[in-house]
Amino acid sequence: GAVVSQHPSRVICKSGTSVKIECRSLDFQATTMFWYRQFPKQSLMLMATSNEGSKATYEQGVEKDKFLINHASLTLSTLTVTSAHPEDSSFYICSARDPDRAGYTFGSGTRLTVV
Amino acid sequence: GENVEQHPSTLSVQEGDSAVIKCTYSDSASNYFPWYKQELGKRPQLIIDIRSNVGEKKDQRIAVTLNKTAKHFSLHITETQPEDSAVYFCAASASGGSYIPTFGRGTSLIVHP
User: Fold this and answer.
1) How far apart are CA B91 and CA A97, in angstroms?
2) Residue B84 backbone dihedrals phi, psi, to 5 degrees
3) Which of A3, A58, A106, A108 to mutate to test binding with chain B, by most B CBs within 10 Å of its CB?
4) Alpha helix (H) ranges present in chain A?
5) Residues 6+ away with beta carbon under 8 Å from A36
6) Which residue of A19, A40, A60, B82 has the fewest C-beta atoms within 10 A of its own C-beta?
């Protein structure tokens, strides 16, 4: 099946700094990618839908100026957490439609810890 | 929008027993229902899926059933093994548009050896 590569897998940063997370579709083109946030023992919360060549669509309650999404190519979407605070610490994971089947394939996730 | 309810939140079984996880959805337009298994700190992995034109699908020890009229679908795992222990998520989505899935809250399955 299709593979989505996500980096970094873990990152620790200081409060006030920015962190960039990358998701790449390795063997297929992804015009749309989804960014999720997952708190411990909770479900996947959709943050935004990333569209290649256009602005991302953010879910209600998600600050677009804080969580910057860029989908500059058909194989790369990035999520930048700007001016990170400890409450931004979470597991961030991206997803794309699997072109070989109707499901979705997920990146490996990024564990962000803001200290 | 779509609303997916998943039960139970926690399920504890003995090795060899069966486990059943149930989900309901609200949007009658939903026609694709995948199930994901997520181990701690790892990505969700698709384990089985079903489309609305099928009532049941089976893959070895895993099966999924769908009742479109009642808008509910279930995951059945038979002969459970300790390695089945994980969090399982159901999801529902509609064809067309961007296929944005709505996930259930997840079920933590614990299989005791």
Assistant:
1) 14
2) -80, -10
3) A106
4) none
5) A44, A45, A46, A47, A92, A93, A94, A95
6) A60
Amino acid residing at B97: G
- Is the pLDDT at B96 greater than 60? The verdict is no
Residues of chain B in contact with residue A49, where contact means CB-CB under 8 angstroms, are 98, 100
Interchain CB distance below 8 Å, A111 and B46: no
Q: Are A9 and A92 in contact (CB under 8 A)?
A: no
* pLDDT tens by residue, B43-75: 999 999 998 888 999 999 999 999 999 999 999
Amino acid identity for residue A107 in this structure: G
**What pLDDT digit, counting tens, does each position of A43-52 carry?**
889 999 998 8
Q: Give A-chain residues touching B32 at CB under 8 angstroms.
A: 102-103
Among A residues 44-103, those touching chain B with beta carbons less than 8 Å apart? 44, 46, 49, 91, 93, 97-98, 101-103
Arithmetic mean of pLDDT over chain A:
92
Q: Is B101's Cβ below 8 Å from some Cβ in A?
A: yes
**CB burial class (10 A; 0-12, 13-18, 19+) of residue B10?**
exposed
Chain B residues close to A92, C-beta within 8 Å: none
The residue type found at A100 is: D
Q: In this structure, what is the dihedral angle of CA atoms A78, A79, A83, A89, given to the nearest 10 degrees?
A: -130
Structure tokens at A11: 């990152």
